[in-house]
Amino acid sequence: MLKHIGAYFLMLRMVFVKPTKANVMYGLIFKEIQDLIIGSLGIVCFLSFFVGGVVSIQTALNIDGELIPESLVGFATRQSIILEFAPTFMAIILAGKVGSYITSSIGTMRVTEQIDALEVMGINSLNYLIFPKLVAMTLLPIVIIFSMFLGIFGGWAATIYGGFSSTAAFVEGVQMDFKPFHVFYAFIKTFLFAIILATIPSYHGYYMRGGALDVGRASTVSFVWCSVVIIVVNYFTTHMFFS
Amino acid sequence: MIRLENIQKYFDDTAVLKGITTEFEKGKTNLVIGQSGSGKTVLLKILLGLFTPNKGEIYFENTPFSSMTDDEHRTLRREIGMVFQGSALYDSMTVLENVLFPIRMLTKLSESEMIAQAESVIERVNLSDARNKLPNEISGGMQKRVAIARAVVMRPKYLFCDEPNSGLDPKTAIVIDNLIQEITHENNITTVINSHDMNSVMEIGETILFLENGEKEWEGTKDNIFKTDNEAVTDFVYSSNLFKKVRKLYLES
After folding, report:
1. Backbone phi, psi, residue A16, to 5°
2. ipTM attached to this prediction
3. Model confidence band, residue B172 (pLDDT cutoffs 50, 70, 90)
4. B139 lies in a domain?
5. In this predicted structure, what is the pLDDT of residue A49?
6. B223 and B183, same structural domain?
7. Is B85 a member of any domain?
8. pLDDT grade for B78, boundaries at 50, 70 and 90
9. Does the beta-carbon distance from B77 to A122 stay under 8 Å?
C-alpha cells in the first residue's frame, strides 16, 4: 500500500518535468477536453435532471405536514444538489466513465508497447499522457455547473408535475437563505475530485502489467480506489469547511 | 558500432545476463538469437536504456554509456530507432501521422519540411497508398513497414528490432527482413535484431550472436553457422528437419 502511495506521488512529480513541446501539448489538451469533459456532459445532464427530480419527490413525500412550508422542497433540493449530489455523486459516476476510459486507454498503450515507444524516442511519457488529462479535468467544475442547474431544474419539474408544490414556493425555497460560499465549497471539492479522477486511473493504467484481461482488472481497481479516495476526501473537506 | 563489455543483469537473485561481451558492427544486420528466456529481450532493453545493467559497460562509438551526460543521453536517444514486436503504432493516428510523430515531437522543422521527410520514408517502404489509413485498416506486414518507417524517419545511427517478423507469413517476413537489411546498408546504420526465426538467420544474419541461459554461447556469421560444431547452436538452429537437410546439402556442396 505504502509502496503504491510512494509510486503515485513520484509519478505526479514526473508529470511536470521534461514537458512535451507546447504546440503538441495544446492539441492533446483540446482532445482530452473533448473526450473527458464534453464527452461527459450528456450523461451528467441526464442523471442530474432525474436525480434532482427524485430528491424533490422524496423530500416532498417525507416532510408532509401542516407546519412545514412548501418552499422546503426547493430548499432541500438546492442544498442536496449543490452541496453533495453535483460534486460528489457526479465524481463517483465519472470515476466509472472517465476513470475507466483513462485506465483502459493508458493500460492498452502499455500492453501494446506504445508507452515503451514513447520512452525510446526520449519523450517523457508521463507528461505526454497524463498532463493533458490533468489540465482537461480541471474544467470539471463547468460540468458540475450544468449538474447543479439541471438537478434543481429536474427537482422543479418533478415537483410541479407531481403536484407537490407551486413554482412560486419552489423558487422561494431555492432562493431561501442562499450562501454563495456553498457553491464555492462545491467547486473546491470538484477541483480536488478532478485531480483524483485524472491521476489515480492514470497511475493504474501506466503501471499495469500483463495483457488484455489485466487492462480490465486495472480499470476495476482504479474505479474502486477513485471512489474510496473521493469519499474520504469528501469527508475531510466537509469537516474542514463546516466544522 | 556498439560494443558490450561484460554485461550482467539480475532480477532479484536471478541472473538473466551473465557477462555478455560482443560487438555489433556498423552498416550490418546483427542478429541476436536464442530460445525464449535466453535474455535477448533484456539485452535489447539494456541497449535501449529501458533497463540498467548491474555490471558491465556499453560503448556507443567508443563512448561509454554510463559516463554520458544527460544531454548526451538525450542526443543518443534521438539516434536510436526501434521496431517493436507488436509494431506499437498509435491507433488513433494515420500511417502518415505515426511516421510524422517523432519528427513533430523532436524537431523544430516547419510543417511542410516534416511532411516531406515523412513522405519520403513512407515512399521508401512502399506505403504511399496507405498514408491516410489507420493502423487497424492495414495488414500486419504493412503495420511492420510503418513501424520501420517510424523507426528510421529520424535517420538514426542505431536501429533495434524486436522480432520484427513475428506473426507474419513467410513471404511477408522475408520482405520485412530484406527491407531492414536494405535500409541498414543504405544508411550505414548499426542494426540489432532479436529473432528466433531461422529464415531471418539464413537471409540477413550478417553477424549472429547466440545466447543461451543468459550467456554468449556462440557468435559468427550466417555462413559459418552451417559449419559450427557447437551443439547448442546446432540443436537450436537445426531443430527442424528442413534446416537439417539444408545444412547437409550445404556441407555436401
Report:
1. -100, 0
2. 0.84
3. confident
4. yes
5. 95
6. yes
7. no
8. confident
9. yes
Q: State whether A121 and B105 contact (CB < 8 Å).
A: yes
* Same domain as B119, residue B104: yes
- pLDDT (tens digit per residue) in B4-53: 999 999 988 889 999 999 999 999 999 999 888 889 989 999 998 888 99
* Residue B75 and residue B163 in one domain: yes
Contact status of B155 with chain A (Cβ, < 8 Å): no
Q: Which whole-number Å values give the CA distances from B111 to A38, B108, B132, in the listed order?
A: 29, 9, 17
Q: Can you give the residue range of the structural domain that contains B53?
A: 2-79+158-252
Q: Which of B74, B77, B84 sits opposite A116 (nearest CB)?
A: B84
Chain A interface, best mutation among B46, B77, B160, by max A CB count within 10 A: B77
* pLDDT (tens digit per residue) in B85-98: 888 999 889 999 99
Examine the fold and report which residue of B136, B155, B174 is the final residue of a domain before the chain moves on.
Answer: B155
CA angle at residue B26 from B24 to B31, to 5 degrees?
Answer: 40
CB–CB of A119 and B50 under 8 A? yes
Q: Does one domain contain both B166 and B230?
A: yes
Instruction: For B41-56, write each residue's pLDDT tens digit.
Output: 899 999 988 889 999 9
Chain A residues whose beta carbon lies within 8 Å of the beta carbon of residue B90: 114
**Contact at 8 Å (CB) between A58 and A160?**
no
Q: Residue B175 in contact with residue B141, Cβ under 8 Å?
A: yes
Q: Are A101 and A133 in contact (CB under 8 A)?
A: no
Domain co-membership, B6 together with B70 = yes
CATH number for the domain spanning B30: value is 3.40.50.300
Shortest distance between the Cα of B89 and any Cα of chain A, in A, equals 7
| Residues in a beta bridge with B29 | B191
Q: Which residue's entry shows cell 461527459?
A: A40
Assigned domain for B222 exists? yes
Residue B174: pLDDT band (50, 70, 90) is: confident
